[in-house]
Design goal:
484 residues; 31% helix; 3 domains; alpha/beta; Udp-n-acetylmuramoylalanyl-d-glutamate--2,6- Diaminopimelate Ligase, Chain: A, domain 1; UDP-N-acetylmuramoyl-L-alanine:D-glutamate ligase; Protein-Tyrosine Phosphatase, Chain A
């Protein structure tokens, strides 16, 4: 519990109407979850304005309201905290309410288009193997030292995030590794948190439905590094043209990693196969159970971050060599027929190109590449034709199918993808709306030495159609197809 005047002590431009000494027992952004004693935060969202739910929150027992605009008739006995911007205020207020958890843990944020989940998860796995209690906040799942907490977004809202961080601190976690999405950065969900360090993986087209332009998307990512303090570190990818752009205005200590250029953490890919890779890092060689150049880059980010957190480089390499790939990230499944199926989360043009060129490099052109891919509904439509183009460019056969259509018609999404293809391209392409049938067909077509890529869903165990999540796991469907 905390008094209102304590909660808002450091806020700028705040105006309190009512009893500033009232005790708050919890914070909620959703009026449906408000109970007696809560502080309700009225966020102006993209589609819904939380101010319209203030009466409902009051009726449910809210004793205080954080808002930008007072109701025409403020409820008696309720304390109103008026601020210029609720998105600005909710982070610092939540951080204070939950005991300033990032003063007690070393929080590292990972951002970029691709590689966030792999990098954050491998750091979490590695530090736990080193004997530390750790937390993970990721697309796949949140973990409090081994205890799973389901994830609805890449980065939770500010209240949920601080609640989780508070639990992690209370349970003795020393390190927390967290994916920071561009949405979360712009919406200030990470506001008020103190980061020990930040990692930049790469930047390619994504989320144009939200950011509208690539420049806005870049600025969103850069905001994270601009906000790092002088006691923090930044580990950035020198192989990405935006790696140094991200570092331009940061106060943090900047360290670089690269597979191509001289850098603080320099890697060289020695050998690569479907069972793993031999990678040299800063002059030392080690074998890792990961596939492809993009994973070599992720491993360099992990290595550099661990070193910046004070771990011994040899210890880092030793533990890294025992790690295994993240679920749904380049998962290779060997078929009894002698072909390899790969399940991967790739859902952007660049991610598809990375995965497909890796498959081509590792297979050495000895077999065909058959790709099954779709695009998500109610998301960036501009990337759909580009995704189809990358599939055709690097594959011998492409089956375009449904992904998570959400509230769109799968056929419309498929047509958007096909719009990027020429008549010549179409000779490689077939369309099968039913994703299960598409995967089965690809596996039936495959012969010994071929590689079947099933892209887009990776770790997800559902397919979202018209607002309903139906159980669907690409891994399961692949293994079922092997039996037919």
């Amino acid at each position: 519990m905390m008094r209102v005047d304590e909660l808002v002590r450091d806020l700028k431009g705040v105006r309190v109407t009512g009893d500033a000494g009232v005790l708050v027992t919890d914070i909620q952004l959703d009026s449906r979850r408000v109970v007696q004693g809560c502080l309700f935060v009225a966020i102006r969202g993209n589609t819904v304005d939380g101010h319209q739910f203030i009466p409902k929150a009051v009726n449910a027992g809210a004793v205080a309201i954080l808002c930008e605009q007072l109701p025409e008739e403020p409820a008696e006995g309720v304390t109103f905290i008026q601020v210029p911007d609720c998105e600005d205020a909710v982070g610092p207020v939540s951080t204070r309410f939950f005991g300033n958890p990032t003063d007690k843990v070393r929080l590292v944020g990972v951002t970029g288009t691709n590689g966030k989940t792999t990098t954050a998860t491998l750091l979490y796995d590695m530090f736990r193997k080193m004997g530390y209690k750790c937390g993970l906040l990721s697309t796949v799942c949140n973990y409090i030292d081994g205890e799973p907490v389901p994830a609805d977004h890449t980065t939770p809202d500010a209240v949920t995030l601080n609640r989780l961080l508070g639990r992690m601190a209370d349970e003795g976690c020393k390190y927390v590794f967290m994916e920071c999405s561009s949405h979360a950065i712009v919406q200030k969900r990470i506001g008020g948190l103190k980061f020990a360090g930040g990692v930049f993986t790469n930047l390619t087209r994504d989320h144009m439905d939200y950011h509208k332009t690539f420049e806005n998307y870049l600025k969103a990512k850069k905001m994270f590094f601009d906000s790092l303090g002088k006691d923090a570190f930044m580990v950035t990818n020198l192989d990405d043209r935006n790696g140094l752009v991200m570092a331009q205005n940061t106060k943090a200590k900047v360290m670089t990693y690269s597979l191509r250029s001289m850098s603080d953490f320099k890697g060289r890919l020695m050998e690569s196969g479907f069972d793993g890779m031999l990678l040299e890092i800063n002059g030392r060689e080690a074998f890792f159970r990961f596939i492809g150049r993009f994973n070599a880059s992720n491993l360099l980010a992990v290595y550099g971050t661990a070193c910046m957190l004070g771990r011994d480089p040899m210890e880092v390499l030793t533990v890294m060599s025992t790690l295994t790939p993240v679920n749904g990230r380049f998962d290779a499944i060997r078929s009894p027929k002698g072909f390899t199926a790969i399940v991967d989360y790739a859902h952007t043009p660049d991610a598809l190109a990375n995965v497909l060129t890796t498959i081509a490099d590792v297979s050495g052109g000895k077999g065909r590449i058959i790709t099954v891919a779709g695009a998500g509904g109610n998301r960036d439509k501009g990337k759909r034709p580009l995704m189809a183009q990358e599939c055709v460019k690097y594959s011998d056969k492409v089956i375009i199918t449904s992904d998570n259509p959400r509230f769109e018609e799968p056929g419309d999404i498929i047509n958007d993808m096909l719009a990027g293809l020429t008549r010549e391209d179409m000779q490689k392409v077939i369309t099968i709306v039913d994703r299960r049938e598409a995967i089965r067909t690809a596996c039936m077509m495959a012969e010994a030495g071929d590689v079947v890529l099933i892209a887009g869903k990776g770790h997800e165990d559902y397919q979202e159609i018209k607002g309903v999540k139906h159980h669907f796991d690409d891994h399961e469907v692949v293994r079922e197809s092997f039996l037919n």
